[in-house]
Amino acid sequence: MLTTILNQNETIINYISELNLPYSSAIKNHMVNIVSGIIVTEGSKTISSVHNKITCNRDRSTGSRFLSSYSWNHEYVTQERIFHAISEISNTCEDSDVGFLIIDDTLTKKNTSTKKIEGLDFHNSHADGNKPKWSHCLVTSHYKINDYSIPLDFRQYHRKESSKKLSKKFLDKNELAMELINEFTPVTKNNYLLVDSWYTSAKILLHGLINGCHTIGRIKSNRVIYPAGIKTNVKKFSSYIRTNETSLVTASNNKYYVYRYEGKLNDIENVVVLISWTKNDLSDNPAFIISTDVSLDNKTIISYYEKRWDIEVSYRYHKTALGFDEFQIQSLKSIHRYWSMIFLTYTFLEIFRVKCGKLYKFKNIGDVILHFRNNYLVKIVLLHMNVQITGLIYSLLLPN
């Protein structure tokens, strides 16, 4: 039987309750415990350490069984989490507000000696110079609008050989991204898809337009454009540009020297490509940013693209603070359930940050995590004091 060490934070209990999940109170209590444990457990996390941070149970496998065999559907929980978050966000938005769907991928790296965990493979790591790393690879979606910045959903990417071994249909990263785009339910009508250069294929750009989203993203230097009807790639074309042909753009206190191309790109008839440098003599390597919305000015395109950084920040907090890649679970079913609980935890923290940010002077998710950890420590101290006081009272009342 599960014994709770500390009374759970009421805000977490209320949040899980607001999702209206059709599960037993026991299942919901496990969710409350794991969300609480993920937040307050410092340092390296295991399922046991997360679960035992909040509960006292002789059976250390309770948390693992919740992920492996208990009757609940993580995909349904994700749908309800997103629905609840969108409802919360819609209460604070105007029809004219601009939203941003951000797509990217990330790795949960493991030691190469780890063999029993399902779904691991060698995936190229952008952060490590495209060197292959033993890991899981996830394509994820993220929603940024006004003060809110929340993770939406994920798809695990399997290489062709791994897909065959797992009896799964192979989908490349662009196809997984398209699935996430299809699922996106925006709060307002004006939305942009923000991506890096791995997701600016013509297929993604057109799919975004079909789903009502213009795309802003980086493109690789070999992409073909047609200035004055002449076919060339953006890198070669950029070598002919002079400083007096650029305009100075300031965005987020950064200065860029920008050349604007508007015209054809591969299978897209009319796009904007910004070629930008940070040095006024154009001596540094240029960045190439595309926008399928040609009505936007240069500053707006760059300012919008900078919001793509939100997903990178979320990956950092997922891994450094919430233990996204620290699990030692073997089955993919349990791993996906665990990831869904991490996304649930992050969403709770973000909603709490926006709602209570002014009261507690939160600047970021890290401040919110620290708030709950400090609150946990206070409860531990109070519990210890109560135990000592109770023991003292009993010693005074009981005869020698």
The helical percent reads 40-55%
Unreliable sequence segments = 1-6, 380-385
| Structural class determined from secondary elements | alpha+beta
Query: β content, as a range?
Result: 15-25%
Distance between the termini: 35 Å
User: What is the count of β-strands?
Assistant: 14
The gyration radius over C-alpha positions equals 25 Å
Considering the chains and any ligands shown, give keywords for the structure.
14 strands, 23% strand, two-stranded antiparallel sheet, 400 residues, 42% helix, transposase activity, alpha+beta, 13 helices, ten-stranded mixed sheet
Account of the protein in words:
With 400 residues, the chain is an alpha+beta fold. It has 13 helices and 14 strands. The strands form 3 sheets. Strands 3, 4, 5, 6, 7, 8, 11, 12, 13 and 14 form a 10-stranded mixed beta sheet that branches. A two-stranded antiparallel ribbon has the order 1-2.
